[in-house]
Request: fold
Amino acid sequence: MTAIELDGVTCRWGRTVALDALTLSIDAGKVTGLIGPNGAGKTTLLDVVCGLTRPTSGRVTVLGGPPASARARVGVVPQETALYEELSCVQNLELSAALYDVKAPKKRIDEVLDLVDLRGRASDRAGTLSGGMQRRLAIARALLHEPELLLLDEPTLGVDVEARHQIWNHVRRLRDAKHTVLLATNYLDEAEALCDDVAVLRAGKLVTRETPRALAAKTGRCLELDCGEKDVEKVRTAVAEHPSAIRAVAEGPRVSVYFDASADPDDLVRAAMAAGRLDGFRVRSPDLMEVLRSVS
Reply:
């Protein structure tokens, strides 16, 4: 079953094209990621789905009808949490419960506060919460009316590592319960941790649609080799010819070789040492821009 259908959707403001004839379908009961650099069109896409933005052209179907008809069945966590900071956590939720006509609101508010581990801060003003707690409260608010579809726009932006993983755990619970979630993120590791599949956007266009594992396989891992300047090209050539290498790039005295994640980087290090001077090396995961280059 399909939860969201976009067919040739374009959003244009003057010379700015935020979405460019985008066609994309989102399956019900899965967590689908939207990844791409800033300006790729992720937030605009979410705004189109929840009915805040009307596309210039194209067709949008959400939960079987136009976006406006599905608003009461959609929960949204925007980039800015948009909480009433002078109100307590409970008061913020009570206001949302009234707007959505939630049945048995006290019971439901207790349930969502438990879900996001904020029952102990229920009477505290939202403005006194940490950034991560405010994000969790925003997720509780979005889940209050038990939506069929949840939209998350960079839910871990600006939060610390501990809060980030707490939010990840909440999204995992939703995934395990077969909720439909559309998650926009700039973090590849977040997409890998949470999503069943990811749509890569750039300049308002769909670059590719993959499972996180398949996307990571295209880029692999990155081995950075610090070389003597005279040996850079020799080292680059040697590691580029290795069977596990996807590609190798030289920048200054450093060679970055992207290799199959299942391969042993020690083999590449030995090939580099045989070709020239090696002052140091390290293995890291590729960043988002490197992934985008790999799927261009």
Remarks:
- The chain is about 35% helix and 30% strand.
- The chain has two domains: 2-210, 218-294.
